[in-house]
User: What shape does this take?
Amino acid sequence: MKGNMGVITQTLLDEGMSYQAYRSLIDKLMDEGKTTGPKQTAAYVDYARMSQKRMKKWEKVGKLSEQLVEQIAKVNRPMTWLVITEGWCGDAGQTLPFMHKMAEANELIDLKLVLRDEQPELMDQFLTNGGRSIPILIAIDTATLQVLGKWGPRPEVIQREFLANKVSQERTGTEFSEYMHLWYAKDKGASIQSEFLAILGVWIQKQQSLPVQAG
Assistant: This one.
């Protein structure tokens, strides 16, 4: 990871959307037959509609494990989770609600969302295999703006399959997308929670080594 290289500023965090503001934006755009970003095609609007449905589903039925809740409670200094996303992103629809639930479990975690196509300089500091894959969650120490780590764009188990399929071309893009979303439905958020259970410990440890205030 390259670090924030001056890209992550207090202004950026202040201008980030809360989860509720992001959901309101998505709902408003969908009512207008639109989505976020410059690509306002029928296909992208359809992707956004499916993502919206998935967010509503996981907001209602998604549950955090007791073990993860206990780990989240160990965060004892303000931490900001900055998420790069877009309304049409299928993976975001499957994972953002769980990020929101995790942040809600500890008042010291502040979840902020920004749109990828409005933040190219930020996005280009957190590429995945050279690509602008989203969602990407960047964990930041709120006091110092130091990057603690990142997560994304999807749970590692399905990411490995995604990368393998790009090489093998066993499934077409559409076929793999259908397969992946069936995987998410069966997984029920277990994989993202397992990964956060592990990386939260690393982020907390890094945070403890930082000064309490910038400077």
